[in-house]
Queue: 3 jobs
Job 1
Amino acid sequence: MSEHYRNTLVEGAAALQLSLSDKQVEQLLAYHQLLIKWNKAYNLTAIRDPLEMVNRHLIDSLSIAPFINGQRFIDVGTGGGLPGIVLAILYPERSFDLLDSNGKKTRFLFQVKTELKLSNVTIHHCRVENHQPKQLYDGVLSRAFATLEDMVNGSHQLVADKGCFYAMKGVYPTEELSAVQKTYKVDACHALDVPHSDGQRHLVVMSKPLAS
């Protein structure tokens, strides 16, 4: 069965035009196994089927890789580390901070960082509005925030002047976009073609308006 997970992951990445090294495949599969193991006690995800986790978590997180720009990122409300852990494995030369207010989830993330030796990952156990980094981020990532408005209101202080917000969404978020367009520039809303995914997936890219 583990070979089936491997094949699904590699084929999914290839469909996204991403090439994974053997080390990256091993790290992603090790993360997958930790997610399965810890999920039983920590309720990290509602998805229980291991193969579905590969498709709806790993490959889904990989799908935004072509669209993110910069060196420093923070994944706010990261939960079990999605998409932050996956992107940190894909881009070891970039840094990824993972923030969550849930102590169980950040304990799991410390375990993942340690076991996978992810030196480019930093974990923060706090609420997003209380996080005060010494250096601002090129990108603020989110996969699980309730609304776009919640995301930008909670994390506006974290993004550098030329940085962007990257929000993963399901169906095209028409109402949410209209709520944020008054104060933030919506640079793009990419339709994501995620292999083995039945529903719609989108990535909304937003930036702060330049000071006049």
Note: The chain has one domain: 2-207.
Job 2
Amino acid sequence: MIASIGGPVLASGAGWVVVGVGGIGMRVEVPSGRVSQASVGEEVSLQTSLVVREDSLTLFGFATQSELEVFGHLIAVSGVGPRSALGVLSALSPAEIARAVAAEDEKPFRKVSGIGPKTAKLIVVSLAGKLPELALDDDSSATAAADPAQLAADAVSEGLVGLGWSDADARQAVQDAREAGAPDDHAGLLRAALALLQAARGGTGARR
């Protein structure tokens, strides 16, 4: 069984990355978010679960052990397949899942595409008592450990997308601005990235 994988990102898309390992590119299905938006060449390290079916071998990867643990519990729930479990982890953090289960609140799960009311209730019932330590976690510890400059870059990218730029253009502009020496604070980086985008578009502003 492949328990973990690490290496440079060769390609990425919505919900997947291809990681280079010893000259081989391995596709890993991941929750949507930072990992699936990793830039080509960025080093990633993922905890993995290999799901074997009659017609496929699919590798699912997670940035933390907690995500992997919750994934294992989710796919053990009747009616929840690996894709649905990945959808839950794309929408909710392990701590949020644990808190919803502890509160017997199925509403957060019903917001996930492909999870209906009955399945949401079944998730809550099936996971009861299995995630107590995660319920005590909050995402502040992970945020504190994260690179502040990267957090600012992610926030600026999302802001530019909100202004009408494509995700790819926004992230490239932020990366170019950082490489050009733009400040790491949110306001300074936003101004620098926006100037690059407007210059590339002839100063016409955000695309519509």
Note: The longest helix spans residues 148-162.
Job 3
Amino acid sequence: MTIKILQHFILLTLFLGSSSFAQEAKNLTYYIGAGPAIDGNIGLYGIHVSNELSYSLGKRTTLNPSLTYYQSIKSFDNFDDPNFGQDNSSGLFTSATLKYDVLKTKKDFRISLAFGPSFQIGSENSTDGAYLRQDELGTYYEYLYSIERFARLGYTQQVVFDWKSKNENRRNSALVSMSSFGGYWPWYLMATYRMGFKLK
């Protein structure tokens, strides 16, 4: 399924790129941002930092390769026992989305939708449970942990809000992204505030 998605994405990108060669001006904007994140699989709050290069293919269409780092900071659950619920996840994501402006005002405020493949290298460790153990040290709980490492292909979907700054070479942007892997949607949910810098 993911291979078919990637093939369709590449073909669509090549078609749009070839159809836009007649344009004289190409806009290139670099975005950097950060914000909160959620790992929906094992229930973790986190933070992330993202970089994106936005290349204009047409009046409403852009190609956007990006690199994002995510790190969890806290579990959804609050346990009295500090040894239980110490779950953790982190990941480095590289994505390439095709973005289309569904709304564009005269003042250049834009609402866009984006979709594309995403590749993650990362890991997670989680507490699988505990059992009561008795020995010469007394009675205590022994915890079971699992560690999983990822190198996997999935996809990301985004809703993007973008508007002009007072500086003509700057843009402001906010987006919500949903990244899915292994049939789980969304595995990661991220909200980002970004600053954009026009490169040419």
Note: The longest strand covers residues 138-164.
